[in-house]
Amino acid sequence: MRFSNFFFPKISNLYFRSKHKSSGNFLEKVDAQRKAKYPDRSKLLEKVTVLLGYDGIDDSIDNELCEKCNGGKDDFDVSLACKRFPSISLGFFPPVELYDEATCSSMDEGLLASQLYQQFLANSSEPKLVEPDSLYETWTSLCPGREDGNSSSLTEHMHSGSPTLKPKAGSNLEFHLDEPVSATTMLETQNTAAPMQDILDRSINCIPGLTKRQYSQLENCGFHTLRKLLYHYPRTYANLQNAEVSIDDGQYLIFVGKILSSRGIRAGYSFSFLEVVVACEVMQNGSTSECIVDETESRKLRTIHLHLKKFFRGTRFTYQPFLRSLESKHKEGDVVCVSGKVRTMRTKDHYEMREYTLDTLQDEEDSSTCGKETLYPIYPSKGGLKPNFLKDIISRGLLILPPNIDPIPEVIREDFKLICLRDAYTGIHQPKNLAEADSARRRLIFDEFFYLQLGRLYQMLEGLGTKLEKDGLLDKYRKPELNAVLVEDWSTLTKEFFKALPYSLTPSQLSSVSQIIWDLKRPVPMNRLLQGDVGCGKTIVAFLACMEVIGSGYQAAFMVPTELLAVQHYEHLLKLLENMENRQMAPSVVLLTGSTSSRQSNIIREGLKNGDISLVIGTHSLIADKVEFSSLRIAVIDEQHRFGVIQRGLFNSKLYFNPASLKLESAKSDDSSKGDNIMAPHVLAMSATPIPRTLALALYGDMSLTQITDLPPGRIPIETYIIEGNEDGIEIVYKMMLDELEAGGKVYLVYPVIEQSEQLPQLRAASADLKTISSRFAGYNCGLLHGKMKSDMKGEALRRFRSGETNILLSTQVIEIGVDVPDASMMVVMNAERFGIAQLHQLRGRVGRGDRKSKCILVASTPSSLNRLKVLEKSSDGFQLASMDLVLRGPGDLLGKKQSGHLPEFPIARLEIDGNILQEAHLAALKILGESHDLGSFPSLKAELSMRQPLSPLGD
Ligand SMILES: Nc1ncnc2c1ncn2[C@@H]1O[C@H](COP(=O)(O)OP(=O)(O)OP(=O)(O)O)[C@@H](O)[C@H]1O
To answer: What is the mean pLDDT of the chain?
Structure first.
């Protein structure tokens, strides 16, 4: 290896890493060494060894080697030197004669860049840290313009046709440097190969100029791959040219400016404060941003002073060392971005900020970007890594992104107007303007949703045997409205049960049943979410689905989250079955809950195992291992968001053998169908908390969605009142309750807690209020219902309320789910501000279920919460309210812990506002899978999908 091959990269590496200004001079010197004599070279080497952390050349290189050097031999063995310089690794350094004049002059810079780039890519997969740096630095030094973030040269080189790299057999990304190939081959390689997306999943040690220390710091903070690093998106952008604003008291504003002073001031015996003064140039009213480009127009700028103040109380905060350390955190001359609430001060153009965020953009020496009208990304710090450090590393990471890293086919990008992935990364981290940041954001959000949808649908298709089945499934998603079975084609049992109903189904209920039965008739396990507003009549739809399955000789299981609900459903179903004309046809139905005696449970389990029992209604106990079914064909999961994903998935393990009666259906499908007839049951999940469609798609991308959009006829809208819970307010509420009771109504009184708590004395408690309410409404009976009561007592309390033995039921939110007492006509919710909007809507849905006019009174304990609750006064549309809750409180609160825990993490997308992108991503995923069920035609997409979080079979 030639002296200069080893020498130049080593020094440039140092230069790059340390931004060491003095070492920069060495680069020029090294360049001059092309023609220099060996004595001069050894002098230079000596200087460099100091930089490398060694004492001197004698200490570093064998005497023999030095002799060789001094002896003027041109090609001394550098590997000997490297033994003494452990940080030097020769590794895969390309045999490029950088300083051989003959080769150098004939070598095209583009060729060199590409070679180095490819070599660099190949090397970066090695666990070594040093070699990529030297390669990159040699490369960047030869391609000026790379360091300023302009990566276009790489793009040009990659496409210029000059590179002479040839892929190794069986690999798209590994290249032999020593086998020159034609320009056309390179282009072909680029065009036909899968995109070079795997660079994203390389270790961050592929980033040029990364020291071992930086590498381990980044690794420790979770930045294992380039992808992870690029996913560290800016928190916000600061416009380095402050926009024209009129500054009013109390406004929340963001400014960029220079620190003028930072002082820690002792203001009293136990009181001190830090004051940082920042000068910001803002545009005068009336001038436009273009004006400022012309420097002569700078008079149109005015300077304002921000006084950032932080106060400290306590004697320990008044000591000088503490105050000095505070001061020193902010250096004079640093360019900073400040955001916070401004307060006007007496002096003109001086403003105070007491709650603020301050981000240092540049230090004093580097003022290159100051005053320019560009967006400056502000990063959140992570694990102690400073935002500016991350910004620097990210911009270095961006430099090595090749142009073709995008796995999403161009046609999809065009259809959905997406920018390419590399532009998206650049756009989010280094946008020239907000529009660019916005399209980058849109593209990255699309990706987050797209791979989720693609993964889930792909998994579903994988589970199917034939092409016909797969096409059928995709069609089902594309045109769900076409998938329905007419009533005439329902099973005899379903028709008999349908006839026995005391009411006719609403159009929406009818079409839901038809869609579900269509699914049940298919050889593919259904996975459907049935949702509808509270009280819309989902239960009867599920019962009909169960009847259809039982009518074809199978079993059904109906799981609910509470015993109360299980009993209610069980009794309701028995009543409906009693009405059947042909009682002989009624299936055997049992109730299995935690309170079922063990003797009874054994009998039920036996019945389920041998097939004597057709339908079981129960709680979690249904998914216990010991509960075996002879042929479970449908599992209904009511209030599904109360169950974890795992619990819901457990029904999938209750496989059943598809006996001869199913052969007919199997025969209809392709012969190559998975013929062993062992199937997972159909799953029908129901949700009373209407989840906005976007959220449902994100949570259950693979689920079909059925919505009941109307309410049973004759329902009278509930009147909702929001009342402040002061003395007068409570009196009004009691008066309204009395009126209702006198008119023959029944009242629910809902409390946030069971017992009074010392920590939260403002909360009214159900148990504690029982006495007060009983004495206040002396002529009426009061009942109590809460989660801590034994289940038979809960059942009894509800029974008494239903039968009219009690007129007022004091309860906690246990009644929120599914409790159905049609003649309950008033609900009062105490401390209503403690509940979410969607939750209050659910509670309110416990009244107004019959033909009696009902009222709901929400009692707010603070005047400030009245406004938030007002939305319930105006709207009774559960979907609208759930969407509102989603925006106000985020998906976590809306879904509750169990379910939101299973919501995939979206680093950049916000479900509450990016719903339309999710919808597009869903369509794109369907389109891709429609083209190629196994993604065989899209190898890059398949590779990307496997790189992203693998999904468990439960979608967990
Ligand atoms: N088509 C209909 N016509 C008249 N009443 C109906 C109809 N469908 C259901 N109902 C009645 O409406 C009430 C509410 O039905 P159901 O309990 O099924 O509602 P839900 O959607 O499950 O409500 P929740 O969200 O409270 O669980 C029940 O008393 C039921 O008998």
So the answer is: 71
Torsional sign, CA 63, 64, 69, 70:
positive
d(CA 829, CA 179): 79
Read out DSSP for 799-823? HHHHHTS-SEEEE-GGGGTT---TT
Q: How far is the CA of 712 from the centre of ligand 1 (A)?
A: 7
Side chain identity at 316, as an amino acid letter?
R
Could you give the CA distance from residue 414 to residue 601 in angstroms, rounded to a whole number? 60
Alpha helices in 748-809 (DSSP H): 766-776, 791-803
Q: What integer pLDDT is reported at residue 890 of this predicted model?
A: 58
Does residue 12 contact residue 20 with C-beta atoms inside 8 Å?
Answer: no
Give per-residue burial for 112-142: e unless 16+ CB within 10 Å, then b. bbbbbbbbbbbbbbeeebbbbbbbbbbbbbb
Query: Considering only CA atoms, which residue is closest to atom 12 of ligand 1?
Result: 537
**pLDDT exceeds 70 at position 341:** yes
818 lines ligand 1 (CB under 6 A): yes
Structure tokens, 125: 């997969």
Cβ pair 455, 948 in contact under 8 A = yes
Pocket of ligand 1 contains residue 822 by CB under 6 Å: yes
- Which string of DSSP letters, residue by residue, matches 658-703? --HHHHHHHHHS-TTS-TT-EEPPEEEEEESSPPPHHHHHHH-TTS
Calpha distance 166→173 (Å, rounded): 9
Whether pLDDT at 111 is above 50? no
Q: Letter for the amino acid at 717? A: P
Whole-number Å distance between alpha carbons of 628 and 937? 42
HSE, side-chain direction, 13 A CA sphere, residue 326: 22
CA of 543 to the centre of ligand 1 (A): 12
Are 544 and 513 a contacting pair, CB within 8 Å?
yes
Bridge-based pairing of strands 656-657 and 678-679 is antiparallel
For the ranges 282-286, 471-475, 743-747, the maximum mean pLDDT occurs at: 743-747
Nearest CA residue ID for atom 9, ligand 1: 537
Q: How far is the CA of 818 from the centre of ligand 1 (A)?
A: 9
Q: Kindly indicate the confidence band of residue 422, based on its pLDDT and cuts at 50, 70 and 90.
A: very high
Enumerate the H helices of 702-756 as residue ranges.
Answer: 727-742
**Alpha-carbon distance 818 to 834, whole Å?**
20
pTM above 0.90, yes or no: no
pLDDT higher than 50, residue 595: yes
| Residue to substitute in 533, 539, 575 for testing ligand 1 pocket (most ligand atoms within 8 angstroms of CB) | 539
Question: Measured between alpha carbons, how far is 404 from 215 in angstroms, rounded to an integer?
Answer: 26
What's the per-residue H, E or C state across 172-202?
CCCEECCCCCCHHHHHHHHHHCCCCHHHHHC
Between CA 795 and CA 782 the distance in angstroms is 15
What's 125-157 look like in SS3?
CCCCCHHHHHHHHHHHHHCCCCCCCCCHHHHHH
The conformation of residue 481, written as its DSSP 8-state character, comes to G
In which residue are the tokens 């660079």 written?
199
Distance 647 CA to ligand 1 centre (A): 26
538 lines ligand 1 (CB under 6 A): yes
Amino acid at 688: A
ipTM of the predicted structure? 0.98
C-alpha to C-alpha distance for 22 and 49, rounded to whole angstroms: 14
Strand duo 350-353 + 301-313: pairing: parallel
What is the number of the ligand 1 atom nearest to the C-alpha of 532?
Answer: 21
Q: What is the C-alpha separation between 444 and 424, in angstroms, rounded? A: 7
Say which residues have a Cβ less than 8 Å from residue 410's Cβ, sequence separation at least 6.
Answer: none
